[in-house]
Amino acid sequence: MLRTLTIRDFVIVDTIELEFSSGFSVFTGETGAGKSILIDALQLALGGRGDASVVREGAPKADITADFSVSAAAKAWLEQNEFAVEEGGALLRRVIDNAGRSKAFINGIAATAAQLRDLGDMLVDIHGQHAHQSLLKTEAQRALLDNQAAFKDAGAGADAQTVAATHKAWRALARQREEFETNAKNVLIERERLEWQVAELQKLAVKPGEWSEITNEHSRLSHAASLLEGAQEALAAISESDHPILSQLSSLNQKLGKLVAVDAQMQTVLDCMEPARIQLQEAVYALNNYLDKVDLDPERLRTVDARMEAIHMTARKFRVTPDELPEEFASLSERLKQLADASDLDGLRQQEEKIRESYMTAAARLSATRATAARLLGTQVTAAMQELSMTGGSFVVGLNPCEPTASGVEQVEFLVAGHAGVAPRPLAKVASGGELARIALAISVITSNATTTPTLIFDEVDSGIGGAVAEVVGRLLKRLGQERQVLCVTHLPQVASQANQHFQVAKGTTGEGKTVSHIDVLDNKARVEEVARMLGGVEITATTRKHARELLAL
Q1: How far is 217 from 223, CA to CA, in rounded Å?
Q2: Roughly what angle, to the nearest 10 degrees, separates helices 138-152 and 154-182?
Q3: Would the N or C end of the chain have less CB density within 10 A of its end CB?
Q4: Which residues form the RecF/RecN/SMC N-terminal domain (predicted)?
């Protein structure tokens, strides 16, 4: 529950610090005093949108802090998101400066507005003063019913998600199939072109790196005669002529070896000459090995020439380099496979039918849970209508079959009969402003029972209600406050008198002539005065005070 709320420099609020109790609390005050500012400030602390306009004139920033006790689920969220749990609670803080820059904190740790909203959804449920208008919208009616269904059956929420996801996949496959059917001729032409290109490249079968290998081989074959002649001349000069270099060097080394015995300084010369002889000997081995491999092979040269010509011509045709042909083959093959898969009409139809069946299965489950929730909601709202002076009236949740959508195979429609003997009709067509307000309030109270949110806020949801009905509304909210913390902004004395805790919102002027709003907790004496004001207007009389005490049962 909400334990404290601190508001600084927000709109026309200077500084306010409020402590809340459990049960049913109300906020009252004259029109324009700023009763809803409290709700606006709390919504900002819960991650709502805000800009520089919320900063009090002349102040550098607006600062709102809300302190909540937390449930096990909220505590788990805090731990999962690495926000320390302090004193069994959560401290949500929002700061907006006069330039519109925003900062958010949870338990003193920097957070995002989205994180405030996520946590706030677990702590507070706000029913706004215009809730009855949203009830006229089909989407709002469906969302409300689905929330009820999900509360009663956790599987309903999963079914709704499955319905949305499978409908999206179904439509995507249907569009793909329709596109293929429309462009079948173009697809066929493109597929035939790709098949011809892939076949040509497959027949040529150029391997990665092959172009580099055959160009080297062609160079070697085309210069084989000169290479052979050069290698033979070198071998002859080194080891096979009448006076080969290697023999001369060996003889010279022998002579130098004898001279070393005479003069040791000659050893240095010999040390330089001997490695040269060894290198020449290795050159002989290498030349012999080369000559064994090199051969004049005109036939092989013609084969390599033809291969190079075929590769070169194909590369020009495909507008790539010879080295890029293997990559081009892989790319075209993949495109052909994709096109073949996409143009498999029978396969597409099978996939479409399979996902359609998945959709219809999930939609059927969702329809069943909706039907159960619709009956229960109808019964509960009808019972509440009797308490709210709509005797004989009834509320029905209609489920009208429709074409498959992302929301299922039925449209949700709220129907109401104002009194007995009248067939229920769409809410927007039969309900007056007062009736609509009462029905909206009944739905708000009933749907609040179907949530685990510990704090419920009603912001003037009793608009359009008065008299005896207002007293019933007060009792309903007080009854709800026995299980949850309920905060209510109201203008009705019959509702205010039912509260366990009463705050008065008033507007005044500072010494500097600035308008400020302040909030006070009322004791019994002050409550009599405030309820009397709400009953009698500007002038409070003994009669209105007496009536106020009767309402307050004091």
Answers
A1: 10
A2: 130
A3: C
A4: 2-508
> CA 385 to CA 391: how far, in whole Å?
7
pLDDT, tens only, 221-256: 777 767 777 777 788 888 877 778 888 888 888 888
The answer to whether residue 431 scores a pLDDT higher than 60 is: no
pTM above 0.70, yes or no: no
Of 224, 223, 242, 245, nearest in space to 234 by CA? 245
Dihedral sign (CA 259, 260, 266, 270): positive
Domain ranges for the chain, please list them: 1-129+453-521, 193-341
- Choice among 173-177, 222-226, 302-306 with the minimum mean pLDDT: 222-226
From edge to edge, which strands make up the β-sheet containing 515-521? 109-111, 102-106, 89-97, 61-69, 2-10, 13-19, 515-521, 501-509, 24-28, 485-489, 455-459, 124-127
Q: At what angle do helices 345-387 and 138-152 cross, to 10 degrees?
A: 90
Q: Residue ranges of the alpha helices (H) in 14-64?
A: 35-45
At 458 the pLDDT is: 84
Specify the amino acid at residue 358: S
Burial of 338 (0-12, 13-18, 19+ CB in 10 A): exposed
Task: Give dist(CA 242, CA 202) in Å, integer.
Answer: 57
For the domain covering 1-129+453-521, report its CATH number.
Answer: 3.40.50.300
Q: Read off the pLDDT of each residue in 351-361 and give the average, rounded to a whole number.
A: 94
